[in-house]
Design brief:
Radius of gyration: 19 Å
Largest sheet: 7 strands, mixed
CATH superfamily of the largest domain: PurM-like C-terminal domain
Number of domains: 2
Number of strands: 13
Shape: globular
Structural class: alpha+beta
CATH topology of the largest domain: Phosphoribosyl-aminoimidazole Synthetase, Chain A, domain 2
CATH class of the largest domain: Alpha Beta
CATH architecture of the largest domain: Alpha-Beta Complex
Helix content: 25-40%
Order of helices and strands: HEEEHEHEEEHHHEHEHHEHEHEE
């Protein structure tokens, strides 16, 4: 019997994330003085970065992150690959090198066979092998929904650590994968995604952001993050708020999955899109020539294992583009620039 994992969960991928406003409420008390008494904690929960970073010695720091979610695709092996790639990406997004992982598994044994969970684990091992690491342990429970992810630990030279709140005025902005993952994943769950588009989706979702490790060594890369459940609108807003800047983007230059408009027309919109937009639209200015309805579905579309969002000094652009091209990435052209803070955090022209 064919198992369709997405039919056994109420959400999928990074679209499962708790809404930004609710998350802020949950973490409000925890954020107060989160790192003040631990000088070795270079990055903590207070900065909303991709992972925690703890200084080991004068040169090296450990990056530690965890990420897990419910199935974004029906195939168990691919789900494991995607969940692993997404978790490992947080280490790459900070310029680090992953060293090992721990598995986090929740499985509804009354509804899904253990053999499917084994396939999830096999997919995750495949991705970890691609990243040069092993799954060294983990924890599992019998849960109502299928859930899988990883705890990933990595290392980084402190001088190469990249944060999401250190962009500088004049930096160019690049995103390394096209937007629209949430829309395509929702289309699959509704049974309207073509086989060709499903193959495209799985290929993008399983592609690891390994270029981040090399980008960490470039001094001209001033800030970096990966675009996941809050969409481009949410993660770029975090970068601009943390850096006290405004991003000026060209809508025409923002990469989108080519077929995404076909599925927008069929109203295959993730549930998280509206809440992401509600959390950010007050800080976004759209040129009057831009289709606001489309922009409100593309910009906050929740991504899973999304692209790296890079703020780079113009003088280092060619070096960054060379690394991306050598990694097989075709989305290397800037989509905008960081400017002095103005009345909005993101200004989008045609």
């Amino acid at each position: 019997m064919e198992i369709k994992l997405t039919q056994h969960s109420k959400g999928g991928g990074c679209g499962c994330k708790i809404a930004p406003s609710v998350l802020s409420e949950i973490l409000a008390a925890h954020n107060v003085g989160a790192k003040s008494n631990i000088p070795q904690l270079l990055v903590g929960n207070d900065s909303r970065d991709d992972a925690a970073v703890y200084q080991i010695d004068d040169k090296t720091a450990m990056i530690s992150t965890t990420d897990f979610f419910m199935p974004i695709v029906d195939d168990a092996f691919a789900f494991g690959q995607i969940a692993a790639a997404n978790a490992i990406s947080d280490v790459y997004a900070m310029g680090g090198k992953p060293i090992f992982a721990l598995a986090v598994l929740g499985w509804p044994l009354s509804n899904l066979p253990a053999s499917a969970a084994a396939q999830v684990m096999e997919g995750a091992r495949k991705t970890c092998t691609d990243a040069g690491i092993v799954i060294a342990g983990g924890h599992s429970i019998d849960s109502q929904d299928p859930i899988f992810g990883l705890v990933v630990n990595g290392l980084v030279d402190i001088e190469n650590l990249k944060r999401n709140d250190t962009a500088k005025e004049g930096d160019l902005l690049i995103i390394t994968k096209p937007l629209g993952v949430g829309i395509l994943a929702t289309s699959q769950k509704r049974g309207i995604l073509s086989d060709t588009d499903l193959n495209f989706l799985v290929n993008q979702l399983t592609t690891i952001n390994k270029a981040g490790e090399a980008l960490g060594k470039i001094k001209g890369v001033h800030a970096m993050t990966d675009v996941t459940g809050f969409g481009l609108a949410g993660h770029l807003t975090e970068m601009m708020e943390g850096s006290n800047l405004t991003a000026k983007l060209s809508y025409a230059k923002i990469p989108m999955i080519p077929v995404v408009r076909n599925y927008i027309a069929q109203k295959a919109i993730p549930g998280a899109t509206a809440r992401n937009w509600n959390a950010t639209f007050d800080g976004i200015e759209l040129d009057a020539s831009i289709d606001e309805k489309e922009a409100s579905l593309i910009l906050p579309d929740p991504q899973t294992n999304g692209g790296l969002l890079i703020a780079v000094d113009p003088d280092a652009l060619s070096e960054v583009q060379k690394i991306l091209t050598e990694a097989g990435i075709i989305y290397t052209e800037p989509i905008g620039v960081c400017e002095a803070a103005s009345h909005k955090r993101i200004v989008i022209t045609a």
